[in-house]
Structures are given as structure tokens and as C-alpha cells.
Amino acid sequence: MKDFVITPEILLKGYANGIFPMAESREDPEIFWVDPKKRGILPLNKFHISRSLARTMRQSKWTLTTDKAFEAVVSGCADRTDTWINSEIRRLYSELYVSKHAHSIEVWEDTNLVGGIYGVVLGAAFFGESMFSRRANASKMALAGCIDRLQRAGYLLFDTQFLTDHLASLGAIEVTRAHYHRLLYAALIQTADFNAPSSATFYDIIQRKTQIS
Predict the structure, then answer these.
(1) Beta-sheet pairing, 125-133 with 157-161
(2) Taking burial as the number of CB atoms within 10 A of a residue's CB, which of 50, 94, 134, 151 is the most buried?
């Protein structure tokens, strides 16, 4: 329907029913719903941190923040030749951020934003939307920070939407639509607070990861 307008409330209902929005390109004003037959998820206890990345995180002087630069993270994710993030999607997620249904994790080198990830939350489910990197390993470190926070907050599901080789190398897997829906509904009836855990350093994250491995 040409005159149909997607609102933040409709967007959340879409996520609750296992679908998510995309645009064909930055310039295309239209949004369409996606319902993959195969769904990418990242089991929170299966996130893989390589030895080299762990060493980098232990020694890093970069800082990790939460919800300090949501719009800048979305801009970083959209700053590529091909992107599904159009102006309408930016507007919708900005409104979800205001209502605390969308969050970002930022990685900083001094005052420069070098990486980040953002996503949507419902119940105990986190729907990862996109991440970006302006320095080597910055997006992986943002993802590590995000997963650490989700685990400490009691989240059950990390939805990556699709499975890429990059995500697979970090522990993501692919499940059927039916399996995904079972995981989704189990997560939606639980509660979790993305902002409840205290802030963490990359050294803290590696220490916790080592203790539970």
C-alpha cells in the first residue's frame, strides 16, 4: 500500500512476529518486510573470541560505551557504498532509541568513534541490526561488548538476521524459520534490561569470558 506508514509500534510488532524491515538502497524511500526461511542467530554462550583478538582487547586503550552516540553509530553503519539504511529506517530507529527499544554500543579511540553496533530489544531478545568498523577489530570488539552486556542482563536470543562468513567465524549459526520462532517466543515472554549492567572495559570482558569458558 503506497500510503501505508510504518510506525515504531508497527515495527516492534513486526519483530515480535519474526520479520524485520529493509530498504533496497539509501535512496529508495520504500521499506519492505523480510522473513527469511533460514535465520542467523548468535548463541550468546558460543561467541568466539580468537586468541589474537583477546590479546588485543586486554591491551587496548579504547573505551566502550552504551547509548552515548546512537545516531553516529547508525551513520557509521550506513556509511558504505551499498546500504539498506534509508532515511525512513533512520527515523524509525531514532524513535525506537528514544523509547528505549533500540540501543547502541560504541568503541572510542580517544574522542573518535571507531566502531559500533546497534539493535532492537523486546523482552529478552536482541535483534542486531548492523555494525561498523573504522579500525581493525573495532566492530568485533563492539560485538564482544554487546554480547557481554546481553549475557549479564539475562538476554536469551541474539538475532543476526542473516548468517555471513564473518558472523559464522564468531560463533553464529543458521536455524530454520520454525526453530527461530520457538526461540523468539521463548525470549519474548521473559524480561531483560539492556541498561542494567554496569559499564565494562575490554579487559573485564576477556576476564569474564575466560572464567566461564
Answers:
(1) parallel
(2) 151
